[in-house]
Design brief:
By secondary structure, the chain is α/β, with parallel strands linked by helices. It folds into 3 domains: 223 residues, no CATH class; 56 residues, no CATH class; 230 residues, 3-Layer(aba) Sandwich (Rossmann fold). It has 18 helices and 12 strands. The strands form 3 sheets. The chain has a 6-stranded mixed β-sheet with strand order 8-9-10-6-11-12, with helices on both faces. A hairpin with a 5-residue loop joins β11 and β12. α6 runs parallel beside α11. The N terminus is likely disordered.
């Protein structure tokens, strides 16, 4: 039996960070958007019963198709919107309670520390939306921060992203379908709605027309021939188009668009300009089920008049529209789910495009078995959070230690240690979500979870000082991290004196061996790290990497094996204007 405890079994905690910055040095640029809460862990998609038929829906996220949105609730909301002109946010919030594939990751352990929200908003918003963030932001945050535990789910999603990159016709078909879905559900939401009777009728006709266009876009040849699960869209649309509901929809649209044809004669002058126009004949489409001859119209009205009823053309048209929509609405909730699924894949493609546009590589990682005792290698790794600062990040090659071993990272302040930890965490998170990662190549091992504790300024609400905060960080690490978890800790034991810090550091390293995570820890205890490297202990397996410096002793933001010789405190102080001469100049300026 597994020793893992669910989130519900553990006392609620929060990470010890107020998060005003991307790291200790760089302020968050741009206008402040409302902060999103840590995505909740909801019940996962229940396993299908043996012999049960898969749901008939174009589910693009799971090997066994499942309808995850609430069908009945959406049918009622869309029906209300069709009549009243507004869905009361039902489509936008359809995914708030939608289950996703089971995951062993707990977002509370890393979501804020790795700036997953900033990554999604800054690098994963399809540009054509022209909006500050993704449409279904909360849903995408859950998908990104809770990657699937089942490798089959991950591989299915990877296949979609690979096909979107390698088959331009498929990418174009997906883009076109997403635009059609956006138009359809924008009409349901009541955007730019004019509450006039004629305009409402026109809106309802446009909704039905958009439904027809969405189903046509789903049957694009490129989607029907797709090798990934994208072909499910074409199969679903073909089933819907074979129903009587769709036939009635098409007949009504054809009647509305092609009720009659008029034959015209133009009179032209000697200068070629039109002098007159004459209608020489009118032909009606009498085969359409909605066609009613003029005589039948008058007889019907006279009969109703004698019976005391007053019915105008608008009421008859509204009744037709209601009947057709009532038949087709049962097939619309799967389209809502498809809308969110496509946005997930286009968000991943937007991330790929953002990286490639800056001349940086991306890849879909390769996987080694979880039990393999071998290091994971990543080439040309970089931190995409730096895009928000308007800089192109420097890439580096990294080797992550095997399961049960710890890598110590040393180097000067502002040398890139925190950024490296962020990059490794985001790489693992995106990789296990099945999407593109910020590296030229990556051979990884799946992990059951991720724990990140990156140093941040203390908040006003924190009751403990630096040492107390540090000790709570350490306790949280051992409470939350499970065997095999990827652990990322920045400046461990930096909140106390060097002698006490080194003692705590050794304690953590020794207990880390019992926990057996995949751990990367940065530290400024250079002498302590050098002693550990000089006298290795079999019971304390460690690897060491350091920030590389150039000929002028400046950080290159690349990393190599070994322990750093200096923290470059004097150079950092000079860069920030904290030298004896400059501080004396500041004091001199204050004298009268």
């Amino acid at each position: 039996m597994s020793a893992r405890r669910s989130l519900a079994d553990r006392p609620p905690r929060r990470l010890l960070s107020t998060r005003p910055r991307l790291n200790g040095d760089d302020p968050v640029p741009g206008p402040a958007l409302p902060r999103a809460p840590v995505p909740p862990r909801l019940p996962a998609i229940p396993p299908a019963a043996p012999g049960a038929e898969p749901a008939r829906c174009p589910d693009l996220l799971n090997p066994v198709p499942a309808l995850t949105v609430e069908h009945g609730k959406l049918v009622r909301a869309l029906t209300f919107s069709f009549v009243a002109g507004n869905d009361s946010g039902a489509v936008a919030h359809a995914f708030d309670a939608a289950p996703i594939a089971a995951s062993t990751f707990e977002p509370e352990c890393f979501f804020e520390e790795l700036y997953v929200e900033e990554l999604l908003r800054g690098c994963m918003s399809p540009p054509r939306l022209q909006k500050p963030g993704p449409l279904h932001e909360r849903y995408l945050m859950r998908l990104l921060s809770q990657p699937p535990a089942d490798p089959a789910v991950r591989d299915l999603r990877t296949d979609v992203w690979r096909e979107l990159a390698e088959a331009p016709p498929v990418r174009s078909a997906v883009d076109a379908l997403f635009v059609r879905l956006s138009e359809l559900f924008s009409l349901f939401s009541g955007d730019d709605q004019v509450n006039l009777r004629g305009e409402q009728t026109r809106r309802r006709i446009e909704i039905l027309r958009c439904v027809s266009e969405v189903l046509a876009a789903m049957q694009a040849p490129a989607l029907g021939e797709a090798t990934s699960c994208l072909h499910r869209t074409a199969h679903f649309a073909a089933r819907v188009c074979a129903t009587p509901a769709y036939q009635h929809l098409e007949e009504l649209l054809r009647y509305e668009n092609e009720r009659a044809y008029a034959d015209l004669t133009l009179q032209l002058g000697s200068d070629g300009r039109v002098r007159g126009l004459r209608v020489v004949g009118v032909r009606e489409d009498t085969r359409n089920r909605y066609h009613v001859s003029l005589a039948q119209q008058w007889l019907g009205r006279i009969g109703l008049w004698f019976r005391g009823f007053r019915v105008d053309d608008g009421e008859i048209i509204d009744r037709w529209l209601d009947q057709v929509f009532d038949e087709i609405v049962e097939h619309l909730p799967p389209l809502v789910q498809l809308y969110g699924d496509l946005e997930w894949y286009l968000a991943g493609q937007a991330f790929r495009d953002a990286c490639l546009s800056r001349g940086l590589p991306v890849c879909l990682p390769e996987w080694t078995p979880a039990e393999a005792h071998a290091p994971c290698r990543v080439s040309s790794l970089y931190n995409p959070l730096l895009f928000a600062l308007g800089v192109v990040p420097v890439s580096c090659d990294v080797e992550v230690s095997p399961w049960g071993e710890t890598t110590l990272i040393t180097g000067p302040n502002s040398g890139g240690k925190t950024r490296l930890l962020q990059a490794v965490g985001l790489l693992q998170l995106c990789a296990q979500a099945g999407m593109w990662v910020s590296a030229a190549s990556a051979r990884l091992r799946p992990v059951p979870g991720l724990f990140a504790s990156l140093s941040q300024p203390a908040g006003a609400e924190q009751s403990e000082g630096r040492l107390g905060t540090e000790l709570k960080r350490i306790r949280m690490l051992f409470e939350r991290a499970d065997p095999g978890t990827l652990v990322l800790v920045d400046e461990l034991c930096s909140g106390t004196s060097p002698s006490e810090g080194e003692e705590l550091f050794r304690l953590v390293l020794e207990l880390m061996r019992e926990l057996s995570p995949v751990a990367l820890i940065s530290t400024h205890f250079l002498r302590f790290a050098a002693d550990l490297a000089a006298t290795p202990e079999p019971a304390l397996p460690l690897h060491f990497i350091r920030v590389e410096l150039d000929d002028r002793m400046r950080p290159t933001y690349r990393f190599g094996a070994g322990v750093a010789d200096t923290s470059l405190a004097q150079q950092t102080a000079a860069r920030l204007g904290v030298t004896r001469e400059e501080l004396r100049a500041v004091l001199a300026a204050k004298r009268p």
